[in-house]
Design a protein that fits this description.
heterotrimer, A alpha+beta (about 425), B mainly alpha (about 350), C alpha/beta (about 170), A: about 425 residues, alpha+beta, Cytochrome-c3 Hydrogenase, chain B, three-stranded antiparallel beta sheet, 8 strands, disordered N terminus, B: about 350 residues, mainly alpha, globular
Chain lengths: ~425, ~350, ~170
Amino acid sequence: MSDPVDHVARTAERGAPAPEAGARPTLAELKERKARSRQRVERGGEVMTVSMGPQHPSMHGVYRAELDLDGELIVTVRPEIGNLHRGVEKLAEARTYHQIIPLTDRLDYISGFAMNHGFCEAVEKLMEAEVPPRGRYIRTIASELCRIANHILWLGVHIMDLGTQTFFCICFRDREYVLDLLEMLTGARLTHSFARIGGVAKDLPDGFDHRCRKVIDFLPRRVAEYERIVKHNRIYYKRAKGVGIFTSEDCYAWRVTGPPLRSAGVARDLRKDEPYAAYDEVEFDVAVEYNADVYDRFLVRMKEIRESCKIIRQCLDNLPDGPFLAPDFAHAMPLKKNVLRNPSAMIQDFVHVFRGPQAPKGEVYRAIEVPKGEMGVYIRSEGGAKPARVRFTTPSFYHGQVVPAMVEGEMIADMVAIFASIDVVLGDCDR
Amino acid sequence: MSDPIAQLIFLIIKAVLVPVIIVMMVAFIIFFERKFAGFFQGRWGPTYLGPWGSFQSFGDIAKLLSKEDLIPVRSDKRVFRLAPYIIFVPAFLVMAVLPFGPVGGEPNLFGYRFDYVIANFDAGLVLFLALGAISVYGVVLAGWSSNSNFSLLGGLRAGAQMISYELAMGFSVVGVMLMAGSMSLVDIVDGQAGNFWDWYFIPQVVGGLIFFVATLAELNRTPFDLAEAEQELVAGYLTEYSGMRWGIFMFAEYVNMVVISGIVSTLYFGGWRAPLEALDFIPGPIWLFIKICAFVFLYMWVRWTIFRYRYNQLMSMGWKVLLPLSIANLVVTAIVVSVT
Amino acid sequence: MKVWSTPPTLEAAAAALERRFGDRVLERLEFRGELTCVVAPADWVELLCFCKDAPELAFDQLECLLGDHLPERVATPFEVVAHLLSHAHGHRLRVKTSLAEGQALETITGLWPSAGFDERETWEMFGVVFAGHPDLRRLLTTDDFEGFPLRKDFPLQGTVGGRIRTDLRGRI
């Protein structure tokens, strides 16, 4: 497997500045660095088994990793997931497509709308339903707000894992502004259930534009402050630079996507590669770094917050008029205000609530860029209102799997930093 | 009443009063830690119990006393019970040699001399270092006796860290010893007579900084709190302790913090002396109290601001940075003192 | 109206598959711009190997591997579906195979290690055995779970429903 050939050109065309040849490490160099930092692990020595059990204050949810330690060195990791398995895929088989949307909220509960969005994109591909421009722009705004909220939370958790709780509280304070915006928009802070087949549930409320602009004006300055505190902090630098190197080759083999992949130099972002919503109508750069370590993943995510602010501003500036939900009798719900006044809307509402929109026979797979990586939704339909099989391919599932490959041979104190940097949320992982 | 009986009565009074005052201070310091943590983090901290939340510690004590006393079945029960006290007691013992006011001189209380120190011990500084070393036993025994992997790992890490930083601590205080010409804390404070520019923190600035950093490691406080790092090993050597036993550990940590703040202010910042001779009318214990509070605040500030070091970086800093620096400080001090 | 069409690189990939495997690709479907190839279980690993190594295909990432149960197909009710992604070309492919009850499929963890968890989950949910998998045991369900939950004949409310665990009394 080789390094993607158009890598640097693609990075440059995506807006990320291509670094000078000396600054950008090649795949071979990265592999050598990785080999140096991973100590040779001699199996068969006496090991102590420690369980980083499902309850630990490291706030990644109920992820269990059984570590075999030789002193400070991690010899083996046996991850165990499934403590948060709720059987979303089985539940989805008994529900109409509208009824599955609230289930998707709870997948990656930190960025609920992103999951709704992914599912609705897949359903719209299956049913060939169209989303009106305003709906696409509102979806973009909500997705980017979720991305900002997710990355700020990630930063707080990551730094808390490395020592301070102060930073965690500061990050949560800033996340409150974004969650207030989402609450204003969707009605809920975490479980948004905002996307609908054919658009979104509600229009932007009055005052949202003004408030959103205020928030995205000061957020880049906040991010600059975080970067100033963290990036140049000697202790963070020593704990994050060169730690947890995971090259692009490894990322492809283990299906690691999102910021860890982009920190390894691959300029892959589904918002640019397979555009959906309004992403082909806004200009933004893809955050790419080249050293594939924890430090670079931090830089990638900070840059993504700034790019998200840019996207939201462009969406607010260019917001088209028109309906936010497609006036599509067959696939979309009617506007609530028409339901009790308009007979055809009432029939539409009845049909969609009691029977559900019908999908043609076939199967689709659609992936979008959620804050943690790439989420794909596979739907197989036999015709009818309920899907025959739904599979949510969530990024955390694979990131949870990759922990042994990333961590064996490192020291236990690094394990926490590395595990935090790949951003695993158990709702996403276990479904 | 003859002098020895008067001294005995004074001794009893001091030996009772000082621990009681320290315990009261610690109760409020725990509250202030949480309050300051809240302020540093943009939130209020405890506000419920008492005015401004100030009775929080008493609520905590009541809660801890009412908890079930869990002792792991396969632990070494006697050592498990004993370990918290091995940390708790030495901290109080150091207070015995710390002067909180003038010692020696004319009779000042009812015709008898009331020395503001419990035990005017010739080698007070060495006693402090020795008792600090004993508390390492408590940590390691706590971890080992819990019969749990986490605790063992945490206890050993904490023990190794404390021992490493004790060396740097010891070498940096020898500088002070050389300047004062004595190991007695009373003499060290008397050697800083005058105004604040006579205090030892100016000539011993390097030693003072090293001492401060080394005490952070001794106290197992961030950035050196790997042994208790919640995120990494649940709670390290404290994992199996619950209820009031855990309360004793916490208490011991804060008593240590108060005592070490007292030591820092005695060695480098003039102890009970006023910063300006004009302010001498304010009694010594008040000044010591103010300085202890200032250093406790500094320890808290550092805790809530700085990240945690990784274990190997911590150890390498202790051995490769602090120890050579403190030895260099000692050599320079020795040269200067012998020349002048 | 968005038109879902097959990208040209995918057409080239399909042609390469056709040239190499010919009849062994039992079915080729195109739906919403996606290409699906159905193969027999015996050709599963060989086809996927070719997909990964051939330059026109260059599928370097296994996007996901999942199972499916179609009870109406009596002979081969189970299906294993693999989604492939190529970073170099940017196209995707779906490869499916049909299995009978109890028939085992060879593992592809040698090609893409990310299949490890996928195959474990497929085994756990459907009962499809993957021969050669390094660690085929349950992943998401509880330790004492019985049955294969995502099969269509497994009831939604489960098979044990609402019991009070008196067997754990005194133990926890």
